[in-house]
Amino acid sequence: MKNNLFALSIFSLAVSFVIGCWLISNSLSGIKNYNTKETQHQLLTKSEVANYLGISSEEVQKLTEITNGENSFTSEIPHIKIDKMDYYPKKAIDKWLLNTQLIVVQ
Fold this sequence. Notes:
By secondary structure, the chain is an alpha+beta fold. Helices cover 58% and strands 13% of the residues. The protein is rod-shaped. The N and C termini lie far apart (90 Å).
């Protein structure tokens, strides 16, 4: 009788351990690691920022280079230039969108 009770308690402990592990693994698999994707892709290209803002690449170019006199340009949209290529920091774009007023691109 004691052997059957001991075996039953060991079996129930093993079953509860397996169920607990299964519940923990299911809850952890639902958690996605959003930091890796964001840190890998902080700079957007012109076409990516156009898709992000819902405008054309030409409109992004017009916002990037606004003539400000002789051979000088100003910009409405935050960007950096690396080897003649414009890149747009996603966090700066988000901040710019929150702080900007209506801009008409012609």
